[in-house]
Amino acid sequence: MRYAMPGKKENGYILIVVLLLLLVLTVIGIAAISTSTIENTLSGNIRLKERNLAKADGAVEISTAVIERAVREQDTAGFAGIVTDPGLATELRSRFFDPD
């Protein structure tokens, strides 16, 4: 036996409304996940760019010191002697790094 409130008909519209609401919430959730993934990718790329920029800047500083030393010693014929010079590492460490 089925009991119904007088004057009310149950047509199932609540089910349709709830399913539409569930669909909207699912779309919002998928959009949030997609946005989160894109932001993670962007932050990783920015971190990589900053790290590479720091490495390039360090290389410029060291290259400047090597070129200044080559000019000072008038050894501009080639850089092969500079690269294999055992005193270069000590000179660069004393110039660019704090002593331990």
How would you describe this protein?
It is a single chain. The protein has one domain. 75% of the residues lie in helices and 0% in strands. The chain has three helices and no strands. It is rod-shaped and about 105 Å long. 0% of the residues are buried.
List the helices and strands and how they pair.
Elements: H1 13-72, H2 80-83, H3 86-96
In short:
The chain is 75% helix and 0% strand. With 100 residues, it is mostly helical.
Supply Rg: 35 Å
Order of helices and strands: HHH
Quickly give the structural class: mainly alpha
> What's the structural domain tally?
1
Instruction: Supply the number of helical segments.
Output: 3
| Biggest sheet overview | none
Total strand segments: 0
User: What percent strand?
Assistant: under 5%
User: Oligomeric form of this entry?
Assistant: single chain
Q: So what's the overall shape?
A: rod-shaped
Poorly predicted regions: none
Helix content: over 70%
Integer average pLDDT: 78
